[in-house]
Amino acid sequence: MTSYTREESVYPHFFFTSTRSSIMWFVVRVYVGWIWLEAGLEKIQNPAWVGDSSGAALTGFVQGALKKTAEFCAPAPAACHPDVQSWYAVFLENAILANPVLLSNLVAWGEVLVGVALILGFLVGISAFFGSFMNFNFMLAGSVSINPYLFVAGILLMLAWRTAGYWGLDRFILPMFGRRPHS
């Protein structure tokens, strides 16, 4: 007898709740975690992110993002599709630029922590949420790069939280909270 209900399709059950898909999620999780860890380690070793000049790199990133707003479309405003929306530009100016040192450290160390947690399979759903949240903010700031791919992978890891950490610490931690993956 299968462990899924009639309302649940075979495919979502396999991909998001069955431990049979856990090796696939292990590969996705470690890859995404490695990308985060590399990015974070690069930042914490850079004094413009964490150190004597802390906040300088974040300030430069935000100033670059502010140049991608609608007000820089003056020559042809009707045809302009800015990379950064005006509401997000207000947030960048008033919240991020007001606290660059604190937020620079939070981004750098947050990337390291998300990377380590995903690699170890520690609270994968929560770790993937924070990684996706950072990716979402990077994309809102006009930075594309690999962020859309990591964002989608993070969303999928959040959906597969019950099995994504099966080959990791979640295999031992989740049962403490009464959560067990399905077979």
What order do the helices and strands come in, and which of them pair?
Layout: H1 10-16, H2 22-44, H3 56-66, H4 86-96, H5 100-120, H6 124-140, H7 147-159, H8 161-164, H9 170-173
Protein described:
The chain has helices at residues 10-16, 22-44, 56-66, 86-96, 100-120, 124-140, 147-159, 161-164, 170-173. The chain has 183 residues and is an all-alpha fold. The chain has one domain (32-174). The chain is globular, with a radius of gyration of 20 Å. Its main location: membrane. It is found in: Membrane. It comes from Candidatus Kaiserbacteria bacterium RIFCSPHIGHO2_12_FULL_53_13.
Give me some keywords for this one:
mainly alpha; 183 residues
Give a quick rundown of the structure.
Its main location: membrane. By secondary structure, this protein is an all-alpha fold.
Envelope shape? globular
**Tally of individual domains:** 1
Radius of gyration using CA atoms only: 20 Å
- Derived from helix and strand composition plus strand pairing, the structural class reads mainly alpha
- How many helix segments? 9
- The secondary-structure element order is HHHHHHHHH
> In terms of per-residue confidence, which ranges show pLDDT below 50 for 5 or more consecutive residues?
none
User: Overall pLDDT, averaged?
Assistant: 89
User: What share of residues is helical?
Assistant: 55-70%
The main sheet comes to:
none
The count of strands amounts to 0
Q: How many angstroms does the end-to-end distance come to? A: 11 Å
| β-sheet strand percentage | under 5%
